[in-house]
Amino acid sequence: MKKLSILILTICSIIGFGQKVSDYKYVSIPGKFSDFKEDFGLANSVTKSLKAKKYIIIPQGQKELWPIEAKENPCNVLSSNLLDDSGFLRNKVSLQFKDCNDKVILQSKGSSIIKEFEEGFQDALKQALVAVPVSNPIVIVAQNETTTSTNNNNSVVSSQVVESNGGKYSNGKLDVQKVQIDNNHFILVKPNSSIPFATFKATTKRDVFRVKLENGDLTIGYFENGNIIIEIPQANGEYAKEIFSGK
Description:
The protein has helices spanning 6-17, 42-52, 68-72, 117-129; strands spanning 26-29, 56-59, 77-84, 91-98, 104-112, 148-150, 156-158, 168-170, 175-182, 185-189, 198-202, 208-213, 218-224, 227-233, 239-246. Helix 2 packs parallel to helix 4 (117-129). The protein is of the alpha+beta class and 247 residues long. Helix 2 (42-52) links the parallel strand 1 (26-29) and strand 2. 28% of the residues are buried. The protein has four helices and 15 strands. Residues 1-17 and 139-165 have low confidence and may be disordered. The chain is elongated, with a radius of gyration of 21 Å.
């Protein structure tokens, strides 16, 4: 391949940035959580809560029933599990979400002084669910072609083509491509790089963005006279103004 697809860039950025539950669109839920002798309506409660938070729920262990997008992109699916952490006096639960590499992305615990199992577990679960954010999935994009990438566990990840909506910019030393992910999110990509140079997410102030650089540094960026400005952190604690002008 002449060029590395932005699909690969985005997948690598997910790994590099540290995944969050809100980065995901799909969550798989078992019909019954195996840690509990009875269901107590727990699976249904998790399903209803996550749907309200805009996640798409798919059945765990039944990939033939998954949407095509989830089948083709298994690493875009989180698996959920609920553990019984109860002690002598309290009903306790631990809600877990794992990625396709079996890494725990989020673990949230809840407890209840209600001694009855069904009411107590439901009360504890309600507390645990508070920590789960609303879904705001990362959009995986590719440039001009569909491609695939293999992660460290040899799981193949693919995506449909989404056209780049941006332009080329340069600071005189470095050329980058602006790729618009959605109305509040874009990335700057270096030619032939496997990691986005910078990822921009909108703030409450117009044309001002939170920026994550490829080395993990967090800073701010903004538009100024048609240019993209990034304040680059320096070793002495100061910031250097990096100006990327449209080409």
